[in-house]
């Protein structure tokens, strides 16, 4: 029988957390619908792989340049206020773009500017929300919340493209941006009324410099060789994967001869795959050594991308099957990584580690985008997808051969108990999910 105190404790964290979480999910729907509309506008207006790759590159700049700084500041500031300001900024730029479109002055560089501003807000919002989760949720429930987030990410990939395709068929781009600004309010309002606990020793942070905070974040990541190695593998995968997702609208339009409905179907089936993978992972739990599940997911991802490169253009179902496999692989990669790392992170270091790890994981994506746009315009999209798939297959197999990587879980336990700390705090790692599934199909995220 459950003790009354246990039931009271469960209610005490679930109500505030899920109120904030639900508002954020509604806001994410609006953001992904707006992203879908912007990507399709660029695709139909320019028809250029270079333009799509450049837009995604613009979105990555704040993540790379500001990630560690944003994480350090999040550890110092009120995380609730950080999320409010970031959400308000994103809503305002959506409203601004709507006004520009209504005035008939919409140009490609306007989309670049909006993408840059939205990414700037996300650079602060993501570490603030990620670091707040472990303060609101009991440690023994973090894995369940991670699994729920995986399922919801898949659900968003199903719902958002369908809504986006419907909205752009009945209203101009300005209307979609107004919808985005409206849904942002659902994410902002709960934050005005629900407090988020502050991490312990927050006062001490005020006495240290931001540069000191950054050094601590980098020192933590560097102190875990297996994590460094896993980040390096993720960097190579993202070198190929980020452009593959960013160029998907052109693949649908030029190779499969589809329109917004077909692009929506591709993104939706990707979401179905994410949900299927998340459900299986939740029921099965993965291999005893979670790194095996991660590497297996990378192999499945490689198979899906390689098959997509050679899928016949007149067989839409073949492309959909490939996207399903790619989506299915994402929870197998992100979920176990999160389960290994999130429970060990100390609340007072989370923002810095999230920011540092996120910035490191994004370093190779710009190079991939710089190469992918011109090469795809010249050689064709299939060449890049084939290269991305083969690289993922090789890295997935390579990971099984490295003893350090196979023992990453032992390394996390040793690090947490060895006394390596930041100002005496036991350190953990950022729930960055290996960074492989961060980009939704369509890019600009």
Report on this structure:
- With 445 residues, the chain is mainly alpha-helical.
- It has one domain: Growth Hormone, Chain: A (Up-down Bundle), CATH 1.20.1250.
- It has 18 helices and two strands.
- The chain has a two-stranded antiparallel sheet with strand order 1-2.
- α12 (290-309) packs antiparallel against α13 (316-341).
- The chain is globular.
- Residues 1-10, 202-207 and 416-435 have low confidence and may be disordered.
The tally of strands reads 2
Number of domains: 1
Which strand-content bin applies to the residues? Answer: under 5%
User: Measured on Cα atoms, how large is the radius of gyration?
Assistant: 21 Å
CATH classification, class level? Mainly Alpha
What topology does this entry show?
Blueprint: H1 4-46, H2 49-76, H3 79-102, H4 108-136, H5 142-170, H6 173-193, H7 202-205, H8 210-222, H9 225-246, H10 248-255, H11 260-284, H12 290-309, H13 316-341, H14 347-361, H15 364-379, H16 381-399, H17 403-406, H18 408-417, E1 421-422, E2 425-426
Antiparallel strand pairs: 1-2
């Amino acid at each position: 029988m459950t003790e009354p105190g246990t039931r009271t404790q469960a209610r005490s964290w679930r109500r505030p957390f899920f109120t904030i979480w639900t508002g954020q999910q509604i806001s994410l729907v609006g953001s992904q619908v707006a992203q879908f509309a912007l990507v399709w506008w660029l695709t139909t207006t320019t028809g250029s792989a270079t333009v799509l790759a450049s837009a995604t590159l613009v979105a990555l700049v704040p993540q790379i340049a500001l990630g560690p700084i944003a994480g350090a500041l999040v550890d110092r500031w009120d995380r609730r206020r950080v999320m409010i300001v970031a959400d308000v900024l994103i809503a305002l730029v959506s409203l601004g773009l709507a006004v520009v479109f209504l005035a008939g002055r919409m140009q490609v560089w306007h989309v670049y500017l909006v993408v840059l501003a939205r990414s700037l807000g996300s650079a602060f919002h993501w570490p603030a929300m990620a670091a707040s989760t472990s303060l609101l949720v009991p440690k023994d429930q973090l894995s369940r919340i991670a699994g729920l987030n995986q399922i919801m990410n898949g659900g968003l990939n199903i719902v958002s493209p369908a809504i986006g395709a419907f909205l752009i068929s009945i209203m101009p781009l300005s209307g979609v941006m107004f919808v985005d600004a409206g849904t942002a309010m659902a994410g902002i309002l709960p934050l005005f009324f629900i407090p988020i606990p502050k991490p312990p020793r927050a006062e001490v942070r005020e006495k240290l410099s931001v540069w000191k905070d950054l050094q601590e974040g980098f020192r933590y990541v560097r102190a875990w060789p297996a994590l460094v190695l896993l980040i390096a593998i993720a960097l190579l995968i993202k070198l190929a994967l980020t452009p593959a997702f960013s160029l998907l609208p052109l693949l649908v339009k030029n190779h499969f001869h589809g329109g917004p409905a077909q692009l929506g179907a591709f993104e939706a089936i990707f979401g179905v795959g994410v949900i299927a993978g998340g459900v299986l992972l939740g029921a099965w739990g993965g291999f005893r050594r979670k790194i095996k599940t991660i590497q297996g997911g990378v192999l499945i991802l490689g198979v899906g991308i390689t098959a997509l490169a050679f899928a016949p253009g007149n067989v839409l179902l073949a492309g959909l099957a490939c996207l399903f496999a790619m989506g299915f692989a994402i929870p197998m990669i992100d979920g176990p990584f999160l389960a290994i790392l999130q429970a060990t992170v100390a609340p007072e270091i989370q923002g810095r580690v999230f920011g540092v790890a996120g910035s490191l994981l994004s370093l190779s994506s710009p190079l991939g985008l710089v190469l992918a746009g011109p090469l795809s315009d010249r050689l064709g999209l299939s060449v890049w997808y084939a290269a991305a798939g083969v690289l993922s297959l090789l890295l997935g197999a390579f990971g099984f051969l490295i003893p350090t990587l196979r023992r990453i879980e032992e390394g996390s336990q040793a690090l947490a108990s060895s006394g390596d700390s930041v100002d005496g705090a036991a350190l953990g790692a950022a729930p960055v999910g290996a960074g492989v599934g961060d980009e939704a199909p369509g890019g600009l995220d």
